[in-house]
Amino acid sequence: MHHLVSRLRKAAVAAVAASLLAAPVPPVAASEPGTLVVATMWEALPLSMAPRRSRFFNESEILDTLIKLDYQMKLIPGLATSWERVNPTTWRFTLRDGVKFHDGSDFDAEAAKFSLERVIALLPYASDLLNIARMDAKGPLELEIETTEPFAALPNQLTDAITGIYARSSFDAEDKFVKPVGTGPWAFVDYQKQDRTIVERFDGYWGPAPSLEKVVYRYIPDHNSRALALETGEVDFVEHLLPSDVERLSRDAAFKVYVEPSAGLYYGAFNAGEKSVLKDARIRQALNLMVDRDILVKAALDGIGKPAWQFFPDDFPWVSETVTPYTLDLAAAEALLTEAGYAKTDGKWVKDGQPLTLRILSYSSRAEMSPITETLATLLQGQGVATQVQMFTWEGMLDLVKQGDYDVSVVFWTPEMTGHPDLHLKSQFHSKAGLNYQFWVNEEFDALVDKGRTLDAGADAMDTYARAQQILQTDAPIIPLVHKVFVAASSAALDGYRVHPSGFFYNFKEATKK
Amino acid sequence: MLHQLGLRLIYACLLILAVSIAGFALLRLMPGDFAEVLLMSQMDGTLPDAETVARFSAENGFDAPLPVQYLDWLWRVAQGDLGTSFVTGDPVLEDVTLRLGKSLTLALLALGTGLVISLPVGALCAFYPGSLLDRTFATLAVVGMSIPNFWYALMLALLFSLTLGWLPSTGHGTWAHAVLPTLVIGTSISGVLARYVRGCLLEELSQPYVRTARSKGLSDRRVLLFHAAPNVFPAVLTLTGLQFARVFDGMIIVETLFAWPGIGRLLVDSLLSRDYPLIQACFLVVAASYVLINLVVDYAITLYDPRVRGVV
Question: What is the distance in angstroms between the Cα of A229 and the nearest Cα belonging to chain B?
Answer without folding.
Answer: 6
